[in-house]
Give the backbone structure.
Amino acid sequence: MIIGVPKEIKPYEDRVAVTPAGVLALTAEGHKVLIEAGAGLGSGITDEAYAAAGAVLVDGPAEVFGHADIIMKVKEPLPQEYNLLREDQILFAYLHLASEPELTEVLLEKKVVAVAYETIQLDNGVLPLLTPMSEIAGRMAVQVGAHYLEKPYGGKGILLGGVPGVPPADVVIIGAGTVGTSAARVAMGMGAQVTIIDKNLDRLRYLDELYGGRIKTLASNQFNIEMSVRYADLLIGAVLVVGAKAPKLVTVEMVKQMKQGSVIVDVAVDQGGSIETVDRVTVHSDPVYEKYGVIHYAVDNMPGAVARTSTFALTNATLPYALELANRGCPRAFTNRALARGVNTYKGKLTCRAVGESLNMEC
Ligand code: NAD
């Protein structure tokens, strides 16, 4: 098979869909990998590094789309790429078609086999191609929070870990899934006092066993949230109810009770946010705003700031599926049930029920 990797053209998207290690793995199986020249530069990967791993470098997206059987991308195709897609081509990328009616029509019309990273799902419900981005966002939430707690950046001027004789900061995390657990690890590593809140008691049991007395676990209810938000120096929103908007667990009144110069990082902002005062999405070039004396960080694509780490983390997770698609082809690769759940459009048919329901289209 020929696998084509175009340069991402979405603004501020510096990731790339394949690393040199991925090229080596695919070429070792007898496939040919076409990389658009310069595609890896945003992630610090040179054309020479790709060539050394066995890729063929080509100029411009037309060369990539025109020859590839499988297009591997990070983000969904943009309108200027629509005409480059070809019938029966396999498109493997984050697609989020539920909010992309126009792209969905294009994929159906062009009879593309579109496999969305975000709907690949294991039998136990885990979404393996979303997990690495949550791991990154969780770790970043603490890093970013520590930064804005510094006085020159508007914070109250405290060090997360404290020093001997001065207590550490209180980090309160709501949601103990991938983002929350990753945040907790980093916050503990920096010496902060960590409280983690979840409605899933088994999850809290697991964290209690893992970290013993080093972490405070609390069941999620209004009383516990109100009490913990009041003492938080850094509050991290990390809840998810699959397929739904994030529940608003922290009210305006609770935020008003927080100490001046505290920081909120609402990672769940991409699902509408779990904190009432998070009423907008912010961008990396202007990431925070202040409300009731509290700094709010609400960037919805946090991993984009660490493009190189994100590229390697993402491709570690996508490569096994890319290999399966390339080795077994279509439709044999879809006997893998996780991969089959990723198929959103198949040769003119919409095949993902959630997308059909969101767009009111037949599936
Ligand atoms: P996850 O499913 O692993 O964890 C979510 C946790 O929230 C679960 O443990 C669940 O029990 C808990 N939860 C649900 N309702 C709750 C409630 N009422 N009270 C307390 N806990 C509750 O999800 P995740 O991978 O950790 O993702 C968390 C959020 O972060 C998602 O919205 C995800 O889209 C988002 N995210 C954002 C970025 C970004 O750049 N901003 C990046 C990655 C992930």
Remarks:
- The two ends are 29 Å apart (CA to CA).
